[in-house]
Amino acid sequence: TISDLTINDTKSSGNGGGACIRITGALTLDGTNTITRTEAAGNGGGLYVSNSSTQPTTITGLTITTAKATGSYSQGGGAYISVAGAFSLAGTNTITETEAASNGGGLYVYNSSTQATAISGLTIDTAKATGSGSSGGGAYISLNNSGLNLQATTIFGTESYYGGGLYILQGLTGSAEISGLIITNAKAGGYYGGMYYYGGNSLKITNSAFNNCRADNHSGAFYLSANSVRIENTPFINCYAYANLKIGLIQSNYISLSGCDFTNNGNLASYGAYESTYLMEILRLGPLTSADNGSALIENCTFNQLENNWKNGGSLQTGACITTSDSGGTFPLTVRNTEFNFKPGVRLCAIQAYRGFYLDGVRFKNFNTNCHMVVGMNTNTYSCTIRNNCGIENCNPTGGYKLVYPENIPLVG
After folding, report:
1. How would residue 277 be classed by pLDDT, with cut points 50, 70 and 90?
2. Phi and psi of 273, rounded to 5°?
3. Is the pLDDT higher at 58 or at 350?
């Protein structure tokens, strides 16, 4: 057990600019631990911890301010944690003004075991990973098949090339539960402005928020890939990208979005290299692989003030708010009790489903442009149904386009 560390103004030519802890056995770092103005040429600008045993590692009460990991491949600007057993970061923990040349501008965590990883009470404020292929501006978490429980975590003002706020890799049999995660003002110089997640058997995100997340290429808010992905009661506000997939991409064989608010999300690609004839999509859903079957459910959500500036040769291009995969097996989309509200003049259809859809209690507002509002692709093969409790308000497509295409999609009671 190590308690009440205070370390200021130190540098290391190796790992751990403030403290370097290598241990084989149980480790507890508790009390009030403060590390300020430190720098490492290796990993862990403020704190480096390596525990090669299967015994647990527990850290509480950690504050790291102004720390850097400066080597070309250095990871963990604030803290670098590598364990082979259960890991817990709990209590009140703050990482501020940190930087890594490679991954994990604020925090880097690696767990090689199947034992649990739990993180809560963490704030990362102003952190960046600066390398050309860097990942996890706020935090980078790499797990074998360890289960992840991430709660009450705030990431603000972070930046990297991939996953500007948070970057998570997890083994295929692991599961992740994320609650109370708030990512604000996160930027990716390339892809996945808010969050990147890949690997696990299941991912569940609840009662979280993504605000002002941006990617200079695609997926302003997230990229999520797991066998099962559920997102509940989570708003995505002012998330933008300069290429395709404005909010993001979900690849999963079972997708469920419930009680989510998507407001002022869109595409800023109106110039230069990102002018393209590709379909502009706010949100794309599809199975893990082209060989898989799957399904997607969206219920009790709002898509509000949607925007599309996607241009090619000066002409505004057609886009879709929600697009489902056009390859693979069955992948029906069900949308219930959900509202779509468009900005005036936006050339953006609400739904384009390639493997069938079922709409129940869906409301469309302010759709007035030259594209179809709802598009069912491959309707001779896949079922497309709209219940007659769906509502339309101030919708009048122009240029010969239709509210629903093809027009033979059944309206049922």
Report:
1. very low
2. -65, -20
3. 58
